[in-house]
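Hello K.,

You asked for the raw outputs rather than the summary table, so here they are, unedited. I folded two proteins back to back in the same session to keep the settings identical. This is the first:
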Amino acid sequence: MHPTLFQLAGVPIHSYGISIAVGFVAAILLGVRTGRRQGISVERILDLAFWILVSALLGSRVLYVITEIGPYSRLCVGADAAAPRSLGRVLYDCSSPLHLWEGGLVFYGGFLGAVGASLWYTRRHRLGFLRIADLIVPLIALGHCFGRLGCFCAGCCYGKPTSFALGLAFPPQSMIYKEMVESGLLQAGALATPRVHPTQLYEALGELLIALTLWLLTPRKRYHGQLLLGYLFLYPSLRFLLELLRADPGRHFVVALATPRLNSWLGLAPGSPSLLSTSQLISLLLLATAGLLLHRLRRREAGGQ
């Protein structure tokens, strides 16, 4: 695990950022190739990729800020400040939701932002949203796979402690180590963290399988929107299950419920909450949306026959 790959002129180059960049470039190259085969110009693909990148970044940040609105509000009003603040410090603290360099992105926010941008772009250029969505969703899964590998290198988005053989311990330079020390779950100076579920690798593997499945289905699809449906059923299901194993403090619960029997089966602490995180709620809403879309597209297909 290497959070920093190397340094360039004294500036650390982080594995997470490199992974995101590699995933995005790979998705664009495959998108251009697939778009050409489907008669979509390279200019349109690159233009759409730009708007997806911008909207995904904004969406992922907005959802993170919403889930962390309490801490951001306290920081702005200085509720936790130990001493009087200067005007410059107040302005800096109150603008903290804009500080992307400090981290804090949520995938589902980025996904919803990308969907919104795609709807706007395809309508403006009369491309057909469902047709373009079928082209994009395998690329989203592939890019997300690279992103989760970056999470693993950084030690973020980690799982709960486990006695399972798949559990991995993270070294002192990882984010999980630092967060465990700050929360009192780990003594400073420990050689490594307790063994935890490597949820980053679970999700990366799941995303890769989703991308491969959608690509295999591409030549067999019967109508536009079929691959989008596949993604809307597969990824939310994967994410809902993985949320049972996640432990990073950035997650928030709509309702915190512990399931002792399920926790025992998963090798987790009996009192560890499993349901219902924000991402699990969004997963359920996306699954419901997929069901409604499936019903609508099947009726449209039947009506066209």
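The second followed immediately with the same parameters:
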Amino acid sequence: MNYWDDVPFQLPPLPFKGRVRRAVTQLICLAGMTVAKTARALRADRKANVPAKVFVIRRGGLGDVLMATPLLRGLREHFQSARIYVLTSKQAVAGLLGSPWVDEILEVPNSKKDWLRLLQKLRKERIDAAFILHRFFAPSLLPLLAGIPQRLGFDWKNHGFALTGSVPFSPARSQTLQIAQLLTLLGKPAAGCEMEFTVSEDASRSARELLRGWGYDPTKSLVGIHPGGGETAGSSEPAKRWLPERFGQLADLLEQRGIQVVMLQGPGDEPFMEGVLKNRKERVLGIAAGLPLAAFAALMKECDLVVANDTGPMHLAAAQEVPVVAILGPTHPAYAPPRGKMHKVIWAGVPCSPCYNPEEYVFGTRRNGKKVFECWRGTHECMTAITAEEVYEVVAKQILALTNKPHLGEQAAERGGIKFVTMFDGKSQTE
């Protein structure tokens, strides 16, 4: 059990429309669960069959689909001849390209007509089992309507009424670990939690050539900084981003002490990168922008460490087995970050956090069709409480512990302590 498991949420107030949506949803789920319990009582328990075809639903962004890769790997290992389909969002498709665990990638439809086509395809395929990696009830209706006999997912409130099997879910525990537990519903051991993303040799070669062009010195440490994220086609989450100017200050501190810095810029990150580079004192090694996802991941793999917000690139770096320093504010410190001793989480633990609960967020503020998550108090103090100097301390000590490049050791040891750091090894660590 993780030290931060079950830290209580400090939920922001829902707008009136959100409260209405939640009340209507609760009524739908209560009615659905009542019908489901009655139906289950009238028929004999079904035993899980060995699936020849498996359907996995994982909507969301890049990080969401990467957290599903342990389950996909486990399915392939235990059901080698099974055909595995994955339904995911357009922006997350690239996270599965080249994966040896997936046979067919399906995109989330944009129109009712496309949804009907997808439903017809699924019925025609005669799929044996579906894994729904969401707690909200709506995604589980698709495999129900498609006639998939085994529908496996999470037991959360009454949202699992369309499921035939489930495991308990908590928004205050590791999401990756809980997804891996779903494999037990088919009588197999829980999957390992290591995320994966395939990087080709061509992509690795491109990354190395890019670094050489920037003048990279392999005898010195290299830190990747990703200051953006939190923007997708369906959601905007500015509250989950650390301040751009703090990322800039961190880059200065690292460069001043002989650590090379590469800035990692994904699609839509341009405004945040401008804020990072404004008033900078030192020159970063380079800015990685406009790269294909595989080359972006390959560049991360060349880094000794990556600093990121709670975003897809945080998980992408972990999938390349690169140490991550994750800066969290409203997110629950046990829920999203990658697991393992090589990773560090910086979380201020201010009284109003964690306030980002994905299960309540679905009922929150919407603008122009997007779900929007902002600091409901308007202070952003869970992020402003974290200074660049404190993050530098964590980064420097991790580099000392994990690499053979000790040129910054004495400088790091001379500086002050850290107010709040936790490692995912079962205990909190305050240095």
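Residues 201-429 form a domain with the Rossmann fold fold (CATH 3.40.50.2000).

Happy to rerun anything if the numbers look odd on your end.

Regards,
P.
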